[in-house]
Amino acid sequence: MNIFRLAGDMTHLASVLVLLLKIHTIKSCAGVSLKTQELYAIVFATRYLDIFTSFYSIYNTLMKLIFLGSSFSIVWYMRYHKTVRRTYDREQDTFRHWFLVLPCLLLALLIHEKFTFLEVLWTFSLYLEAVAILPQLVLLQRTRNIDNLTGQYVFLLGGYRGFYILNWIYRYLTEPHFVHWITWIAGLVQTLLYADFFYYYFQSWKNNKKLQLPA
Amino acid sequence: PKDRSTKDEL
């Protein structure tokens, strides 16, 4: 464990807590993409299949349970909670996220480190996580008026993978034979997808005006 | 065994 990875995990944790806070307290998920939340639930479900077979640390297992629990409960809230589900703008959140799942699955079947069931699904979760934010970014472009909590959620979610990139650089420099192109490229693509959001987020923060993404 | 992969990461 290094400071970059810890910062990344804490930022990631903060992003899901911000979202859960928003949905649980104001009973609203306006501006939140259910498609992205469903993709993240799939990412965690396929990433943490080894939770029962391999144990690294209490921290590792605890965080996996938190991410699994939070992502599935957010999907539950947005689909089935009587008050929250009414605030979900179904008409705007129309990204065909299944068109992201299949290519990631095919790519994982083609490019992986080992051709085993767990490894292919784990690689699939890496590719899917890289693009899982797309429905949310599209929704933000459409809804334009981004409330603070949703903006913070996307900002923290984008920041966590950025910290992970620093973690991979650190591990590459300090651990011999630590080379994982698949993880690195997927993580880099993921962070780059946030680039324009980050630009507009900092602009709005600097000029102290509401976050507006160009149409 | 602590394998050298990124599996110990979240």
Automatic annotation (TrEMBL), chain A:
Q: How does it sit in the membrane?
A: Multi-pass membrane protein
Biological classification of the source? Eukaryota, Viridiplantae, Streptophyta, Embryophyta, Tracheophyta
Q: Which domain of life is it from?
A: Eukaryota
Q: Does the keyword Membrane apply?
A: yes
List the transmembrane segments: 55-77, 98-115, 121-140, 152-170, 182-202
Keyword Transmembrane tagged: yes
Q: Which InterPro entries match?
A: ER_ret_rcpt
* The family this protein is said to belong to: Belongs to the ERD2 family.
Instruction: Tell me the Pfam families matching this sequence.
Output: ER_lumen_recept
Species the sequence originates in: Camelina sativa (False flax)
Keywords in UniProt for this one?
Endoplasmic reticulum, ER-Golgi transport, Membrane, Protein transport, Receptor, Transmembrane, Transmembrane helix, Transport
Q: What is this protein called?
A: ER lumen protein-retaining receptor
Subcellular location(s): the record lists: Endoplasmic reticulum membrane
